[in-house]
Amino acid sequence: MVGSKHDKVKASIMKQLADELSVFGKEDLPKKDLVGLVGYKHENTKAFAHALKELKKEGLVTLSSGFVCLTAKGKDQIPQDTTPPAQDNEGARDRFFKILAKKVSQMVKLKEIWTILADGKPHKVDDIVSALGYTHTNTKG
User: Fold this and answer.
1) pLDDT for 18-59, tens place per residue?
2) What is the C-alpha to C-alpha distance for residues 15 and 119, in angstroms, rounded to an integer?
3) Region of 140 on the Ramachandran plot (φ > 0 left; ψ -120 to 50 alpha; else beta)
4) Buried b or exposed e, range 108-123, using 16+ CB within 10 angstroms
5) Rg for the chain (alpha carbons), in Å?
6) What is the C-alpha to C-alpha distance for residues 48 and 110, in angstroms, rounded to an integer?
7) Among 96, 112, 5, residue whose Cα is nearest residue 54
8) Number of other residues whose CB lies within 10 A of the CB of residue 23
9) What residues form DSSP beta bridges with 46?
10) Quick one: which of 7, 53, 6, 14 has its CA closest to 34?
């Protein structure tokens, strides 16, 4: 069925791999990162696993040592008119947060830490803890 959820997952996998190639010049991506970029929490999610299996069967990707890699045939399938992803620090940060969003329960705190550290200066752990509103480094939440 054209336009099905399954087709969208396959297209999303291919897009993320194409972005990796475009931005970083890498033909592969860790499967554990790819699953988050596609919008799932676990590699064994049925929709993700089935779509990846089908892409492998079609010869568009390979899977080796936990990395999903575009094949030559897969690279040929990337639409040439695709707008490349942002290639600056902000775009890289957003991509990083997208990977972590399904894995980290305290994204708000992570983003606050990122903002504090964005100035590139050294910061004491105690100062970061205080800036986040905590009193101890072993505080949870």
Assistant:
1) 888 777 778 888 998 899 888 888 888 899 999 999 999 999
2) 32
3) beta
4) eeeeeeeeeeeeeeee
5) 18
6) 26
7) 5
8) 15
9) none
10) 14
